[in-house]
Amino acid sequence: MKTDSNQTLYVFKLFVSSKTPSSLLTGEQLKKIFERYLSSPYQLEIIDIVSSPETAFQYAVVAVPMLILVSPEPKVTIIGNMDDTEKLFAALRLSLDSLRSNNDEQ
To answer: Is 4 inside any structural domain?
Structure first.
């Protein structure tokens, strides 16, 4: 999917459990990481499996937290700890060069 400025729009779904505080913190951590390092526009939808079990079933959620890169294809699913930004970006096929250059500016 492209934006009006012809940039790639990254669409993520993060599945969490309101019964697991650490799972909820992952959403806030991802927002901070994406705002700081992701140069392209993105959408992050946070879905609580307790209040939306049908959506969790639809996406075959097996554990939380679980992040799905929906777009651009191919889909990528990451389960568990997402604290390591470099590993997270590598798994999502995002440029480590842009990550490093943004880090250097800080």
So the answer is: no
